[in-house]
Write a structure and sequence with these properties.
This protein is α+β, with helices and mostly antiparallel strands. It contains 3 helices and 24 strands. Helix 2 packs antiparallel against helix 3. The radius of gyration is 29 Å and the shape is extended.
Length: about 375
C-alpha cells in the first residue's frame, strides 16, 4: 500500500472515530427516558383511578344495603303491634340480615398484562430504492389489492381466499371468502381483529380466524375505504363528493357522526383512500376537473385541515392510496405515475421512487417489510431499518 493510500485510510478512520465520539448518546437516552417516565406516570394514574373506581363500587354497594335495611328497621317502629304487615316486615328483615351476615364477598383479580407493543422504538424511515431481490405472491384475476397488517401477520386477498402471511413471507392460514369484492381492510388493536369492507357490509376476522359480519347499519351507502384509530372506525363512501362516517369501536358499531363536502372534499371530487395515524386522518383526494391528486391531513377531533399537498397530475383513474409509517410520516402510492412518495409529518416531500409495475397500495409490515400491491402480485421487500 502506498504512503498516500495509508494516510487516506488513517484519515478516514480518524474522521469516523471523531464522528462516533461526537454522537451524544446520553442526550438520546435522556430524551427517551423522559418519554418513558411520562408513560409510567400516566399508567400509574390509570391504575390508581381504576383501583379507586372498584373501591367506590364496593363501598356504594355496602352503603345501599345498609341504608335499605336501616330504613326498614326504622319503619318497624311505626308498625302497629300484632298485625300481618308487621309480621311480614320482621320476617323480611330477619331474612335480609341472615343473608347479609352469611354473605362473603369474593374478589376475582386478573393479572395486569402489558402488551409488548405498548411501547415501540421507531427509527426514522428512509424510503429505499426497489431492490431486485424480493418475494412475490401472485394474485388471481379477481383478487382485491387491499392489504393490512398487525405486528404478527399481513392479510391479503387471493380470491377465493384471504391469506395470512408471516414475517418469513409464508402463508400460515387461508380462509375461504365468499362475501364478495373486498373494497378495503385495516387492523383494529382495540378489537384485536382485522376489519374488511365490501360494497355495503363490514366484516371482522378475529384472532381465532373467525369471520363475523358487523351488525347491520341503517345506512344506505357503498363503502370505499376504511381505517381505525384506537377508539373509532372511519369509512369513506364510493361517490363524487365522498362522505366519511365515524363509528365507535365496540362489539356493535355505533355511528358517532358523519362529515360531508366541503369538509371532506368538493362535491365534484372523490376520496380514494383514508388512513389514520394517532388523532389525524389522511385523505387521498382526486380532482377530476383539473386531473390533480392531493393528500390532506385532518384532525378527526375537529376535522380541520392541518396541511394539504398536491402530489401529481394526470387523467389516469388508477388508485391513489397511502399508508402511515414511523415518526408520523406517510407513504403515498401514485398509480398514475408509477411512483411512491415519502411525505414528512408536516406535509413536505422527503423522497420518491419509481415502481417497475403499476402500484396500488403499500403497507409497512413489522417495521422492516415493505409490502407493495401491484397489478398482478403482492411484492414483499425486506428493508434495512
Amino acid at each position: 500500500m502506498s504512503d498516500s493510500s495509508s494516510n487516506s485510510a488513517t484519515n478516514m478512520v480518524n474522521l469516523y472515530s471523531k464522528r462516533l465520539k461526537e454522537v451524544n448518546f446520553n442526550e438520546k437516552l435522556t430524551n427517551f427516558r423522559a418519554k418513558l417516565d411520562q408513560w409510567q406516570k400516566e399508567s400509574h394514574r390509570l391504575i390508581d383511578e381504576y383501583y379507586q373506581r372498584k373501591l367506590n363500587e364496593f363501598q356504594t354497594n355496602c352503603n345501599e344495603q345498609y341504608s335499605k335495611i336501616q330504613t326498614e328497621i326504622l319503619q318497624l317502629q311505626d308498625e302497629p303491634e300484632n298485625t300481618d304487615q308487621r309480621t311480614a316486615r320482621i320476617t323480611s328483615l330477619d331474612n335480609q340480615l341472615n343473608d347479609l351476615e352469611q354473605t362473603s364477598f369474593e374478589v376475582h383479580l386478573r393479572s395486569l398484562i402489558i402488551p409488548e407493543n405498548s411501547i415501540t422504538i421507531q427509527k426514522e424511515f428512509h424510503l429505499p430504492q426497489i431492490p431486485n431481490n424480493y418475494s412475490k405472491i401472485p394474485y388471481t384475476a379477481t383478487s382485491s389489492s387491499a392489504i393490512a397488517s398487525n405486528h404478527e401477520y399481513l392479510l391479503m386477498h387471493q380470491d377465493p381466499y384471504v391469506l395470512y402471511l408471516d414475517q418469513d413471507f409464508k402463508i400460515v392460514k387461508q380462509l375461504f371468502w365468499p362475501y364478495g369484492w373486498i373494497r378495503d381492510m385495516c387492523w383494529s388493536t382495540t378489537l384485536n381483529s382485522f376489519i374488511l369492507i365490501t360494497d355495503n357490509q363490514i366484516y371482522f376476522i378475529n384472532n381465532q380466524f373467525e369471520i363475523n359480519p358487523a351488525s347491520k347499519q341503517d345506512i344506505q351507502q357503498i363503502w370505499f375505504s376504511c381505517t381505525c384509530s384506537n377508539e373509532f372506525l372511519f369509512l369513506s363512501t364510493c361517490q363524487w363528493g365522498s362522505l366519511i362516517y365515524q363509528f365507535k369501536l365496540e362489539s356493535s358499531l355505533n355511528l358517532i357522526q358523519q362529515w360531508k363536502p366541503p369538509l371532506t372534499c368538493q362535491d365534484y371530487e372523490g376520496i380514494n383512500d383514508i388512513q389514520c395515524n394517532q388523532e389525524n386522518l389522511a385523505l387521498m383526494i382526486k380532482n377530476p376537473r383539473e386531473h390533480t391528486k392531493r393528500i390532506e391531513l385532518k384532525s378527526f377531533k375537529t376535522f380541520s385541515t392541518l396541511w394539504s399537498l398536491q402530489l401529481s397530475i394526470g387523467p389516469n383513474i388508477r388508485l391513489f392510496t397511502c399508508c402511515s409509517i414511523n415518526t408520523n410520516e406517510w407513504l403515498v402510492v401514485d398509480g398514475t405515475n408509477c411512483r411512491i412518495y415519502q411525505i414528512s409529518k408536516d406535509g413536505q416531500f422527503k423522497n420518491n421512487i419509481a415502481c417497475p409495475a403499476v402500484p396500488y397500495r403499500a403497507n409497512l409490515f413489522a417495521s422492516n417489510i415493505l409490502a407493495i400491491s401491484v397489478e398482478n402480485d403482492l411484492n414483499l421487500y425486506r428493508i434495512a431499518v
